[in-house]
Amino acid sequence: MHRDDADNAADHHTGHARHTDHTDHDGEDDDRDGPVSAQGALLSRSPVAGGSGGPTGLLSQLLLAVACGGYATGAALGWGSPEVALVMGDFGLAAAAALASVSCFAYARTHETRFRPAWLLFSVSSAMAAGGNAVWGWYEVVLREPVPSPSLADLFFLCFAPPAIVGLLVLAKRPVTRAGWVCLALDSWLIGGSLLTLSWSLALAHTAHLEGRHESVAHAALSLAYPLLDIVLVSMVLALHFRRSNANRTAINTAIAALALTVLSDALFTSPLLRDNYRSGQLLDAGWFAGSLLLAYAPWGARRASRPAPRDTLREDPAPALPGIRNLSRPIASSLAALTPYLAAAVCTLGILYNVVDGRRVDRVVVFTGCTVVLALVVRQGIMLVDNIALTHELAQKENHFRSLVQGSSDVIMIAAPTGILRYVSPAASGVYGREADDLIGSELASLIHPEDLGLVVHEVRRFLATSPANEPTTRIECRFRSGTGDWLNVESTVNRHQGGLIFNSRDVTERVRLQAQLQHNAEHDPLTDLPNRALFTQRVRKALSGRRVTDHGTAVLFIDLDGFKAVNDTIGHQAGDELLIQAARRLQESVRVADTAARLGGDEFAALILGDGGRDHAAREYQVHEIADRLRLTLSQPYRIEGSEVRVAASIGVAFAEPGITPTDLMRNADLAMYRAKAAGKDRVELYAPQMQAEVVRRSELAARLRTALHDGEFALLHQPVVNLTTGKITAVAAQARWRSAQGILFTPAEFLRVQETGESEAGARTAELGRWLLEEAVEQAAERSKAGHETPVAVRISARRLLDKSMPLGSIEALLTRYGLPSGALVVEISDSDPRVPFEDLERRLMALRRLGVRIALDGFGSGYAAINALRRLPIDVLKLDRGLVEGVVESARLHKITSGLLRIACDLGLQSVADGVDVPEQVLALRAMGCTHGQGMAFSGPLDEYRLRRALSRGDYPVPGMPGAAGRPVLLGTRPSVHSLVRSNTETPVPPT
C-alpha cells in the first residue's frame, strides 16, 4: 500500500471539527430539559454565570487538554516502538472519531431540538472517519500489509464530507429570500473557487500531473477527491459561519477551532517534505486526534459554557458623567461577512499571480475557475447593489416616518451616551422644557437633574442596567429637571437600553405632581382652618412617641373644646361660627412652637401636640405644660370680632402626658377624658389627666350597659308622689317618677342612673328617649286604670323641652296614648323640665298649644333656677308653675330666698297660675309657703314616692294632715321636726322596694 493514500485517509479527521462549528444553532433552552447520557455527562460542564464553567466543566476541559497533550507527547517521542506508533496512529484516531460519533449521536437522541438532524449527520460523518481509520489499522496493524488503493477505507473517507456539508446546511441560518439563496450559493462558490485556484496552483496541478502519468485514472481521481471535498467543506464553513445563530456561540467557536486544527493538519500533510517522510503515529496525527476530541466535547461542555451571564453585555464606562451607563461592544461579524467575497476574490487573484510570477504557463483550470469567480463576484455585486437600493429606499421611508413621529410627539426623546452626554434631543424639548433641543445637545444629563434627585436616578439606572433585558426591558424614572427659566419641572421618563447609551422618553408631569401634593394636603388638613386633621395629628403623635423620642416623657397632648360655640351657631349663624373657628385656629397656630402641632379634630374641638424638651424633671415639665395650656385657654377666650360685633366663647382644655409604652390612641383618649372632666367641672378650665378618670369612664360604661339591659328586661318601676293642696291637704295630682330596681333590691332615682347621659353621646340620648317613652306610656296606662277604679287624679309626667320637640315623640303619639287608654281630658299634666337655649321658643310654643287643644295641662318645672324661665313664662302657654327645689329648701332659713320665692308666687297669682312647690320636706316649709300664697306642695312633709298599692290606699283616704290647720294634731304626720339627713338622702337617691 502507498503511504500517499494515507494522507487521503487523514483528511477524514477534518470533518470532526467541522461539525462542532454549528453546535451553536442548537438552542440552549431546548437542551436543558432533556436527559443527559453518561458520555454526555462526562463531556459536559456545569453552567455558571458568565460562562466560566463550574468544577465539572473545568474537570472536563482539563481531561481534554491532558488527552490531547498526552497524544502529542507520545507522537513526538515515537510511542516507544513502531508497533505502538502504528496502533495509535490508526486505531487511536479511529477511537477518537468513534468517540465524536457517539457523543453527537447521544446528544441528538437526548435533546429534542430542531437541530437534531444536524447532530445525527455529524455522528454519521464521524462514524465514516472512524470506519476508515479502523480499516486502515486492520491492514497495517493486524494483517501487516499495505493498504490497497482504492480500498474500503477510501469509501469510508469519501463518505465523511457529504454528511458534514449537509449538517452545516441544516444548522445554518437560512436565507429568507431567493436573492439570499443566490448570494449564499455565490459566496460558497467564491470561497471554494478561490481555494481551488490557490490549491491547484500550489499543489493539486502537480499532483494531478504525476498521478496521471504513473497511476490509473481512478487512483488520480481518488487523490484529488480528498482535497477537493475538503475545499468544499471549508467553503461551506466559511460561507455559513457569519450566518450562524447566536444561541450557542461557544460551541461554534470550539467547532471552528477543531476544524482549523484539522484543516491545518491536512495542509501540512500535503507538503511534499512531510508527505514523503510521514508514518502513522507521528506528531501530525496529534492534530487530527485533537480535532476529533474537540468535536466530541463541543455539544456538551462548550454548550454549557456558552450560557448567557445574568448581567447584560453593556460595559462600564471608565468615568461616566452619569454613572452606570455602559456601552454595547461593537459587532464585527457583519463587517467580516461583507468582506468575505472580496477576500475570496483576492485569494483567487493570488493563485493566478503565483503562476505568472513563477513563470509557469497559466493552467486552464486556473483560468476557468478564476473567470467563474470573477463572474460570480460581479453577479453578487449586482444583486447586492439592487438590494441596497431597495433597502436604502425603504430605510429612507421608515426614517421619515419615525422622524415625523418623534418630532410630532409631545414627549421629549433624548439619547444619552455612556459618558452621560446628550447626543440627541427631540424638538419637543422647546415646548416641554422651554429650551431648544440644540442647546441641550452636548450637555451633561447629570447637570440638568436636581441634585437631590441625582442619587436616586443613578441608583435606578445602575439597577436597570444590571438586570437582564429579557426580565426588564424598560424602567421608569421620575425626577426634577431644570427648565429654561431656571425652574424645576417634575419629569417622568421611560428608559430603554440603546447601543452606546440609553434612550429617555420624557414628559412633564408637574401639574400631576402638584395635584397629588394638593390631594395629599387636603387629605391631611382641615378644609376650613387648614390645620392638620385628626389623621395627620395621630400620625404626628405616633412619630413623637417613636424613634429618638420614645424615652422622652415630656411630650403632651392637649384637647381643646370651645365652650358656648353651639350658641354662636344657633344665634348668629353657621357662617359666623365658621369665622370664629378660623380665628381660633389662627390663634392656636400662633401660640404653639414651630416644632409643635396644632390641629382641628372636628366641630369646635382642637388639639395640640407639645413635644418634650428631653428634661428629666417631670414635675417641672408638668407645670410648664399646664402654663402653656392655661395661656392657650386665655388666648382662645379673648373676644372675637365677627361681623362688626364681639363674640365670646371659653375653652376647656384637657392635658395628657406620654407615659412609657403608651400608644397614640391611648394618649389621645386620655387627653379627651381630661377635657370632658374640665367641661363637667364648670368649663373654661384646664384639667390634667388622672388614672381615676379612666375608672370613671369604665364605671359609666358598665352602668350604661346595665341600663340597656334594664330597659329590655323590664327592671324599671313606676312610682308616684302625691301633690297636696296646702290648705285642705287633698291630693290633687300625682307626679310619675321612674325607678331602676337593682339586683340588691334598691330603686335608684334618675339622678343616679341618668348620670351616664352627661357626656351627651348619641347612644345615651337614644336610651333616654326610650326611657321617656316608657315612662309616659306607663304613667298614662296606670292613670287610666286608676280612673276606672274611681280615682280620677291627674298624673304629671316630666318631659324635657328638647325631647318634646324630638321627632321620636311626635304629637300624634300622646294623642294616641290618650285615646288608647281612654284617659279623660285634663288627666295628664306635662312638666317642661328644662329651658335649653338651643330649643326655639316658636316651635315649643306651637307644640304646647297643640297639646293644650288635646286637654293636656302644661306645667313649667324648676321655675326660678334658669335664666330663660321668665321668657318661658312670658311666651309659653303655662297652667302650672312649679317652684324649683333649690328655692324651697332655703325658704325658711334664708330671708333672701324667702323674698325671691314670695315674689315668684305673687307673679303666679297675678297670672292666675296654679303654683306647686317641689321638695316640701318639713312642716316649717309648708307653713311658710302657704303664707306666701303657694297653693300646692310635693315632698316628704306629706309622702314620698309610692308604688301603685300604697298610692291607691292614699287616694282612698283622700287627704293628708296639713301643719297649722285644725285637726292636724291628731293625724300621723311629722310636726315641728325636720327629717333626718338620712331620710333626706334616701328621698333623693333611693327608696326601699315596697311590698307587693
Would you give an account of this structure?
Residues 1-39 are annotated as: Disordered. Keywords: Membrane, Transmembrane, Transmembrane helix. This is EAL domain-containing protein. Residues 553-691 form the GGDEF domain. The protein is an alpha/beta fold. It is 56% helix and 13% strand. The strands form five sheets. An eight-stranded mixed barrel has the order 15-16-18-19-20-21-22-23, surrounded by six helices. It has a five-stranded antiparallel β-sheet with strand order 4-3-7-6-5, with helices on both faces. The chain has a five-stranded mixed β-sheet with strand order 9-10-8-13-14, sandwiched between helices. Strand 16 (731-741) and strand 17 (746-748) form a beta hairpin. Helix 6 (82-110) runs antiparallel to helix 7 and helix 7 packs antiparallel against helix 9 (161-171). It is elongated. Residues 1-53, 208-222, 303-333, 756-763 and 969-996 have low confidence and may be disordered.
Number of helices, where a helix is a run of at least 4 consecutive DSSP H or I residues: 38
The poorly predicted ranges are 1-53, 208-222, 303-333, 756-763, 969-996
What is the mean predicted local confidence, pLDDT?
Answer: 75
Helix content: 55-70%
The span between the termini is 143 Å
User: How is the largest sheet built, in terms of strand order?
Assistant: 15-16-18-19-20-21-22-23
What class would the helix/strand composition place it in?
A: alpha/beta
The rounded Rg comes to: 56 Å
The description of the largest β-sheet is: 8 strands, mixed, barrel
Name the shape in a single word.
elongated
Write down how many β-strands occur, each being a DSSP E stretch of 2 or more residues: 24
> DSSP strand (E) fraction?
5-15%
